[in-house]
Amino acid sequence: MTCCAGYCAAASFFDSRVAARDQRRYQRRGPDASTRMLLAEIRRWPLRGLYLLDVGSGIGVLATELAAAGLAGATLADASPAYLDLARRNVGSRYAGRPTQFMLGDFAATSATLPEADVVTLDRVVCCYPDADALLSAAAARSRRLLAFTHPPNRWYLRAGFAVMNFFFRIGRNQFRIFVHSPQQMASVLDAAGFVRAAHRESLLWSLSLYRRPEFPSPSP
After folding, report:
1. Residue closest to 119 by CA, chosen among 50, 72, 40
2. By residue range, what is the domain housing residue 72?
3. Is 2 inside a domain boundary?
């Protein structure tokens, strides 16, 4: 996971201590709730021979979990060097003989330098990126088939909780911020990019939206 208000904020907030904590949690419990939601929808689609681009890849959970689906290769992009270091260890052995890339930087600013992929994922990334339009536009431009992302639903208790957390970030002089973006505005960005929504799921804390290119029909139930 990487939710960032900018490259430097993410790189400093998601440091080696946080990365090690996420690694221990994944080893004990498996993927987090939002990741499980995303994986459940992605796995409904035929993935064999496709390329994955995971934006805000964190320690590489999505790429690790999807390796057995027969992906042809994966690119993991994250703003945190500590996360990418662990992602290399987690993902590398799962993709023996298949190409994997690990790209450091602010995806919205560097996406044009990355290869296109059949499937683009963003798990808990737009939640704290200040410009969701720019982030999703960049992700859509890299996706040939599917784009799936998770984000907090626009509910009062989350807006209130995020406001409190951002207050403490501010008084602690931490540039990191988290946001509840408008679902309607995010949907309009992907509609304008030529995608259609194929699936949507919600829990108390997370929403999942999966979009497809119109030429790729949804799989049979």
Report:
1. 50
2. 7-212
3. no
